[in-house]
Amino acid sequence: MTGGLAARLARRIERDGPVSLAEFMALNNAAYYAGGDPFGRGGDFITAPEVSQMFGEIVGLWCVDAWERMERPAEFRLVELGPGRGVLMADALRAARLEPAFRPEVHLVETSPALRSLQRAQGFDAVWHDRPDTIPDGPSIWLANEFFDALPVRQFVRIGGSWHERLVDLGGDGLRFVAGPALRHAGAGGDGDVTEVCPAAGGIAAVLAARPGYGLAIDYGYVEPPGRPTVQAVSGHGRVDPLSRPGEADMSAHVDFAALMRAGREAGAAVWGPAPQGEWLRRLGIEARAARLGGQEEALARLTGGDAMGRLFRVLAFGPAGAPAPAGFLDGEGG
């Protein structure tokens, strides 16, 4: 176990005892994303906007359609959470120029100074925020592509008839998982069951869903809890032990879409989906766009294929209560 974060964690644990997995994950990802550019073939992972410009273009045209459904407000905000290099926003804005009256005020939620620099290099004007609750009120369209999966989760495991929170402690020459004290009144389950909770996700989804307008959450995740751990760490396009290199690998967890849906409805929004990403993109015409561009066969298969992002990733939409389904969704799909 090496590196600055590893040393700080060791001192913290020696002084105060084990930390929760959620706290470890938050510290890990803050250090990881502050360190530079993890995206693309030369980084640790590739997101959909890096696969092909088609993804951002489709999202941009979806935003124009949402704006039309909002009765074309002259002043409105286009918000992206966790915008990475800024590729998605750049492609979306370029495609949206097909409608000259679509002129949003762009707001980006990003805490990493290194990534903010990459986003500025894309050439569009924006206002940056550390948190979504500092974005000014008013009509908005918001986007969260692979944002919720990076939020810290608490993990609980059923042992000997009781639930225990999974903690991170010192062990040997590194870190190890340990079980915390038994929890009271924590519900039923079988030994070995694992459940995960992301407190931040519901709060952020509620803040966004309460804004007048529409939003998209695109991520990998589930509606029915899988009953197993989903927290993982990735480095160099492969999985690694999440405790082996604190601050040097990306940590994520599958998104609980049911929790996002509940948060949206409780905030007064309608919710549609989650639809499989591949089906959503096909409904919006990505195959025709690929044919027009040419040379997009591999990218199209990756974005829409049943053995790739097309099945693993899902798309959840938020909008005004009582509104018909937005583009790419079906009435009654989520509702």
**Which structural class should the secondary elements be placed in?**
alpha/beta
Q: Total number of helical segments?
A: 12
CATH architecture: 3-Layer(aba) Sandwich
**General shape:** globular
Specify the helix fraction band.
25-40%
Mean pLDDT: 93
Strand fraction? 25-35%
User: What is the helix/strand order?
Assistant: HEHHHEHEHEEEEEEHEEEEEHEHHHHE
Head-to-tail CA distance between termini: 48 Å
Largest sheet features: 8 strands, mixed
Radius of gyration: 20 Å
Q: What is the fold-level CATH name, i.e. the topology?
A: Rossmann fold
Q: How many DSSP E strands?
A: 16
CATH class reads Alpha Beta
What's the domain count? 1
Primary descriptors:
335 residues; alpha/beta; Rossmann fold; 8-stranded mixed beta sheet; 5-stranded antiparallel beta sheet; 12 helices; globular
Write the layout of secondary structure elements.
Elements: H1 4-16, E1 19-20, H2 21-34, H3 48-51, H4 53-69, E2 77-81, H5 87-96, E3 105-109, H6 113-120, E4 127-129, E5 140-145, E6 154-159, E7 162-171, E8 174-183, E9 194-197, H7 199-209, E10 213-222, E11 232-235, E12 238-240, E13 250-252, E14 255-256, H8 257-266, E15 269-276, H9 277-283, H10 286-293, H11 297-304, H12 309-312, E16 313-320
Parallel strand pairs: 2-3, 2-5, 3-4, 5-10, 10-14
Antiparallel strand pairs: 1-7, 6-7, 6-9, 7-8, 10-16, 11-12, 11-13, 15-16
